[in-house]
Amino acid sequence: MSEESDDIQTLNQVVFDKSEFASTTWKGFVFEVVDVDDNGGTTKALDPEQIEWKDKPIKIHVDEKTIIDDMQNENPDIKIDTSASEEKIFAQVTLEMSNLWNGMYYPEKKGKPDTPSYTQMDKRSGVATQTWKKYLHVAKRAGLYTESIRGKRVRAPPKPTAEDLKFIADFDEWKATKPIQDWIKRFPTAEYHKNQLSLFNAMKIMVINPERLKQMATTGESMDALEKIGDLMEDERYQDPRNESNILPESAMLEDWQLPNKFQWGNKHTKGAWYWFENYGLEGKPKVWYYVRKPKNKQDAKEIANMYAKKKWSLRSWSIAPDAPDIYGHDDPKTSYQVMKTDAKGKLVPTGKWKRANVWFGGARELTKGAIEREQENILYNYVGVIRQFVDTFGLGVGKQPDTSIWQQVANPARKATIHMDIDQIESVRQTLSEGMEGKILEFDDWYNYDATKPKRITFKDKEESIEYWKDAHLYFLLSLELGFRAEEAFTIIGEETDQVESKDKSGKSGVIEFANRDLMVQIYTRKGEKGKKGQKIHGGFILSEETKALVRARVKQVEEGMKQKTQKEADKFGVIKEYKGYTYKENSLVGASGKYTVVGTLNLPTSEIKGKEGVEEIVTARDKIREIFRHCYHTAELKDEYWYNHSLHSLRHVFAQYWCELSNYNYGFVARIGHWKTESIVREVYGQSQDYRTKQDMQDYATATPFKKLRELKKQREKIPSQAEQQAFESMGWGTETDLDVQDQKLREKIYAEGGEYYDVRLPKSERVYTFYPIGTDIQLIDKKMKLPTTIESFFKYEKKKEDADQVEGVQAGD
After folding, report:
1. Going along 343-441, which residue ranges are E strands?
2. Across 18-32, 273-287, 327-341, 663-677, least confident range
3. How far apart are CA 164 and CA 54, in angstroms?
4. Which of 739, 776, 738, 725 lies closest to 755, judged by CA?
5. Within 609-720, where are the H helices?
6. Selected residue with higher pLDDT from 796 and 656
7. 621 phi and psi, to 5 degrees?
8. Which residue in 210, 334, 420, 510 has the fewest CB atoms around it within 10 Å?
9. Is 455 a residue whose pLDDT tops 80?
10. Cβ(508)–Cβ(523) below 8 Å
11. CA angle at 353 for the pair 350 and 355, rounded to the nearest 5°
12. For residue 755, what is the enclosing H or E element?
């Protein structure tokens, strides 16, 4: 198969890439090697799924004395390299057995090859019939010869061509190949459709099939293999399909060179006819495709139409380019379009005539202008990640690579770490949500980005529907700040009480738990956390805000009342489903009426990514309404970063992370625990860069306005610490040891936190003590004694307090 394979040790494969007696179309063959149990030991054998000998695996060990020596003694021209691997020795012996069966090494008789009979083959091979027949069984399966042309020398196998390396266009056919199935069996995450699709897309752009990529991974030294596959990812191999033969004719374009509505459809996955879009993406909402520029003349139009005719894309260039073609695009040779003409005023108007043309259709790239300006390569790194997995399946470990290597897979800094919602903006969002719940916002603009010029107008069928959506968004917002759920998880929280407290395994159920002391916990089905052998399915989070508690209790009560109704029609008024498939329904939703955002009966099902399994099903139109509401809130709050609008729900998870990072003084372990991140390093790396203003603020807090005065006070405090002699005197007077005093002090702090009261320094005599009263909930040990531990949503970032320093106030307000 490969011209180099003669000089290469092949690992875990038996490779055949030479035969003078194969068919004219033969391109080589590869057998997988597996370990089999051999009477208590382990022996290498050809994979039984590919070939067996009399219902048993074919072992690849070849005895040098009883087979190789005897064969070479009978045929001095045969040279077997016994220093090679077992796999390669087996391949050599099989090939030579095939050559002997085809009459090689013996002179022709009467102008015809001297093909041996069974008896002659016993003599020529030097082994028993059953032995050489076993090798021929393999040779025939590998295509080293065919009975129809036995003894006829054809030619050596051809070198691999572009066609040999070509990707398999059909996804199901691609997935069914053995290398892909091996990858899926090896890695649990490879079972998910989106990861399979990523690898399929990558191979399509690289123009390579699974078998060939596997061969590259298992051929030669590992460093050479990594370099060759890395070059393959960088090589421009994918041919752009767009050219003058499949572009929509100019005469179909509307004024301003906009595509007619007929040739554009969809929402964020908008597709359209072959016409370039202006600048960095589709414009407007609904999004509209534009011509890159109006041609000056016919020659210029032809040059524009052929700007991609000779263009090829590499995996890297395709991943970062806004104008890269949709790899699932296709030609439609029967596209009909209305011919336009320029009227007397210079405007394009329809002529009423229709024509047909061959037009290429494809989807638009979902790359934002900001992402391109930041030179983000996250799409590329996703593809490199699944390729790393694939080659690792066959023993090619990538390991640590230089920063310049495409294998390095260092993702760009997370955008979520750079967005920030300050307390003023939080309050603005809450205010807008309140106005919506009061029926004051019956329609609004959907700002798909802050600078949108043509926002889509969002309306509701009536005032009641509008209020209900705003109420759902309000509860979603409050819950997000306390639970930190992922975007879609909130819509599958079950709004019924449960006694199945979260478990560390994959058991448990979503629901609401109210403890005897009135503490409230909401349990979430975290499908992302469930993945992997040790994944946890259910995570619980405490609700601290009294406002949020009241809303959760109200919905639980509403579900209880709805279930008591006699008919489903009456239960509908409570947003409750009474029965499902003949059983009492136990999955009524917490956010919104049951069946509004998630298909009934699927709230407690896993992700639907794994083919053949039932999964959770979202109701997209309703969930999009919530996204549109939040985009409106963000625009009102003057949040300008595109991330808020592109990830209108998921961005709240990152507000949650920043919220608790600030409140806990950047206790990453704590934030990781309550936010269900697997390790604190994830939180530290993404959110560890605290806001710049905190450096100056911390210096001010430590030094105070009069640092020399503080140093003098610290010295006085140190002078008050009892000496060893004084400590012994204290103990003799019954004042207690230092450890006793620590315990006494800790008890006092805990009492204040639980009940409120006066705090004083237990180490000082009563006559010198200063008593300070603190209200219930004050944590003297962890935070500034002048501050109260937040018990409601009103308290936000601990450091979002006014300072006299004007620069710092400006920094806080700017979100820096």
Report:
1. 348-363
2. 273-287
3. 33
4. 776
5. 620-636, 642-646, 651-663, 668-675, 680-687, 693-703, 707-720
6. 656
7. -60, -40
8. 334
9. no
10. yes
11. 115
12. helix 738-755
Two structure tokens written together for 238: 């994918």
Cα dist. 101→29, 96, 140 in Å?
A: 19, 9, 11
- Other C-beta atoms closer than 10 Å to the C-beta of 173 total 10
Q: Quick one: residue 582, left, alpha or beta (phi over 0 = left, psi -120 to 50 = alpha)?
A: left
- Under DSSP, the state recorded for 816 is -
Residue type, 597: Y
Question: pTM of the predicted model, to two decimals?
Answer: 0.51
Average pLDDT, whole number, for the chain?
A: 78
Among all chains, which residue has been given the structure tokens 């003084």? Answer: 665
Instruction: Indicate the Cα dihedral angle 210, 215, 216, 221, nearest 10°.
Output: 150
User: Of the candidates 17, 123, 126, which has an alpha carbon nearest to the alpha carbon of residue 62?
Assistant: 126
3-state secondary structure of 813: helix
CA atoms lying within 13 Å on the CB side of residue 189: 15
Q: What is the CA radius of gyration of the chain?
A: 36
Could you report the per-residue pLDDT of 235-250, keeping only the tens digit for each?
A: 898 999 888 888 888 8
Q: Per the structure block, which two tokens stand in for 776?
A: 């219930």
The band of 285, judged by pLDDT with boundaries at 50, 70 and 90, is: very low
Cross-strand bridge partners of residue 10: 219
- Contact between residue 495 and residue 590 where contact means Cβ atoms under 8 Å apart: yes
Q: Give 698-733 pLDDT, tens digit per residue.
A: 555 666 667 677 777 777 777 766 555 555 555 544
Among the listed residues 306, 298, 421, 483, the one whose alpha carbon sits nearest the alpha carbon of residue 815: 421
- Rounded to an integer, the average pLDDT of 243-260 is 80
Q: Give the pLDDT of residue 7.
A: 32
Alpha-carbon gap, residue 62 to 737, rounded angstroms: 81
194, two tokens: 């989106």
Determine contact, residues 211/205, Cβ cutoff 8 Å. Answer: no
Alpha carbon distance 509, 527 (integer Å): 12
Task: Give residue 371's pLDDT.
Answer: 63
Residue type, 249: P
Peptide bond into 157 cis (omega under 30): no
Residue 809 confidence (pLDDT) above 60 = no
Which residues, 6 or more positions from 515, have their beta carbon under 8 angstroms from its beta carbon? 521
DSSP string, 332-390: EEEEEEEEEEE-TTS-EEEEEEEEEEEEEEEEPP---HHHHHTT--HHHHHHHHHHHHH
Instruction: Return the higher-pLDDT residue of 16 and 690.
Output: 16
304-313 tens-digit pLDDT: 888 888 889 9
